[in-house]
Specification:
heterotetramer, A: 150 residues, alpha+beta, Aldehyde Oxidoreductase, domain 3, globular, B: 77 residues, Ubiquitin-like (UB roll), two-stranded antiparallel ribbon, 2 helices, 19% helix
Chain lengths: 150, 77, 150, 77
């Protein structure tokens, strides 16, 4: 179980493999891994976006992510999890967030990974300011739900 | 008592500062604290508040030495 | 959109990166990736498992996986997807299946990835025969649902 | 007409063979085909059937040149 807030570009695949190597003793128990990666798009709300600054509340960011991850471990039968969140200046195609969950059975990995992402989106103290191609800057107003209407 | 108040993101830009260090005599709530720190600005509708990095509602009490934060809806991930 | 059935061990992280590099023109449109990886556990139904053979119906395996992936592309707004399924002799810790879905928004990636996995589990013509540490061999009887009861 | 029948996994082991090449005069269903190929074995309850690699129900018609497959519940993934 680990939570990292990182400044500067990170490669999510390398982070996952590095973390997985560190939990190799669990490998024979793992039947399922669900991974979510959020990356920066080059458009938003109809506008071309050039770059973005991710502000956070140092200390509270880590604390809230840990609270969320603990909730997931209490609610589902999961073996381990990793959360990495980027801060600072970022450009399109860069990874913003990585959530990985390992479990014996697939239902728990899917449920817990999605839970962590939704909770992070609504509770982790991070804020995005977009810089458009037109040089206009704007704060993203709020995150919307990640659940599609049925 | 002495309270540190922090502001983030668009709220920080709107207020033009990132923190206040305040001294109060009486016990007060998070909402009172906003009023003391920002007498000209009413509390924005969708504001979130944290005391010592945990979410609280606006009527929670503030204690000496607390760090209180106000910020807009979060937009990470 | 690609479906591969592979004989021999594969590294899911390498497969994802290789595929992602091939769709780099989409990268600025991608805001979300949801990935599921199924790996072989060293126990099942209370027994220690030594190895496994994955039989499949060549031709129908590919065909059914393609049908499932097309259904997912019709049902959700997704940009691309990759499915890799292993066949042949495998040992614990090996990857069995990889499903990756890329989309603009996270809800579609999560929904489509899970849909593909569940459909694959119930419709793709693959069969597992387990070899226990005791040398006893048995066919896995059937797949169970991946949805936790609410 | 000429039909290829294939068996997989535990069913293949139980029957002791992986395929039959059958010739029939009359039009028949997938279920009839099983009976013709396996007169001593009743159709297992949870069997799945495919014609030309697409799932079908047991009462579907079989045509000349079709490849028909019978197999147990799938357990991949």
């Amino acid at each position: 179980m680990a939570v990292f807030i990182v400044q500067g570009d990170f490669n999510p695949w390398q982070e996952i493999q590095k973390y997985q190597n560190s939990i190799d003793s669990l490998a024979g128990k793992i039947g399922a891994a669900c991974i979510f990666i959020g990356t920066m798009r080059d458009f938003n709300l109809g506008d071309s976006v050039k770059s973005m600054t991710l502000e956070h509340y140092p200390g509270m960011g880590e604390k809230q992510l840990e609270v969320i991850v603990v909730e997931a471990h209490q609610q589902w039968s999961i073996l381990d999890s990793l959360v990495v969140h980027r801060v600072g200046d970022i450009v399109p195609k860069d990874a913003i967030v990585l959530v990985a969950v390992w479990s014996a059975h697939r239902g728990d990995a899917f449920d817990a990974c999605r839970y962590i992402m939704e909770a992070l989106k609504s509770r982790a103290p991070f804020w995005k300011k977009e810089r458009l191609v037109s040089e206009y800057e704007r704060w993203v107003a709020e995150n919307t739900t990640g659940y599609n209407l049925v | 008592m002495s309270i540190k108040v922090r502001y983030f993101a668009s709220l920080k830009e709107k207020l033009g500062r990132s923190e206040d260090n305040l001294a109060f005599v009486e016990v007060l709530t998070v909402r009172d604290l906003w009023g003391g720190a920002n007498p000209q600005q009413s509390l924005p509708d969708n504001i979130l508040a944290a005391v010592n990095m945990e979410y609280v509602d606006l009527d929670s009490r503030v204690n000496d030495g607390d760090e209180v934060a106000f910020f807009p809806p979060v937009t990470g991930g």
